[in-house]
Specification:
Radius of gyration: 36 Å
Shape: elongated
Number of domains: 3
Order of helices and strands: EEHHHHEEEEEEEEEEEE
Number of helices: 4
Distance between the termini: 63 Å
Structural class: alpha+beta
Largest sheet: 8 strands, antiparallel
Amino acid sequence: MFSKYITFIFIPKHTEKVKKTQLSVGTLAVISLIALVFIVGWIYLVYDYVSIRARLINLDQNLAQYNVQQQKIDAYRSQHGNTETHYAHLEALYNKLKRLTSITAADEQDNLQKDSEELKLALKTAREKGILQIIASDISEIDTDQKLQSDRFHKLVQFFQENASPLTKIPRGWPLKGYIISGFGVLVDSFTGQLRPRHGVLIATRAFTPLYATADGVVRFAGEDPYYGHVILIDHTNGIVSRYGYVSSIRVKEGEIVRSGAQIAEIHNTQQTTGPQLYYEVSINGIPQNPIKFINPLALKD
């Protein structure tokens, strides 16, 4: 088969002489193979170039996001340093006040005998009204609050400094097992009959169904809301915020770091709803987004 020849005839446009070329089947096969290898190699180089460009773009985006997060961390550190200085002064004042309050304890009788009548009256008034004790108590509470704030700050710094994938801070999947009964957009208010925007979706479920965080984040608010009952607001630190309304048995508190898939509450029947249901909302930079983009509406949470 490879000993056979194939003749190629080239016919020019004008009156030049017709040219003929003979190639064996083996030679033609080798040439075709070389051409195929060249084409495949060229396609691979183009694909590799495009892939590298895409990774560089993602790298630039991640670097920009890292710089923003680093600026936030620096701001937190600066604020924390100022707070420590402020509470150092408060601690000094606290120690002075503790010494002052000790005057009214064991040595009170001796001091009253030695001091003038004005000092006696001042100490008596302070003791009756509890001024020094109140101040000392308030400073003690401030000191305790400072420790809690400091612990919370360090946790937030660790959270910002994590090298986890950015995808862990983007809501995805169902927050609970259920089905959507009211979508994102405009709806008629059942109480007023007027049109109003709905920035999230309603997901019907069963009573006592656990509610899970859809992404890593920091609890910005966990408490009562005038319209959606008990609400949990989670800041995912990338401009994305998720809101969970009509919840019960809240298991998180403000400032707490939550992880994707962690249980944050349960869903019960409330006064604001006709049955167990969740109001789920996602916003990016303050702009409400359709939560359907972040969940698969055709599947239930396992």
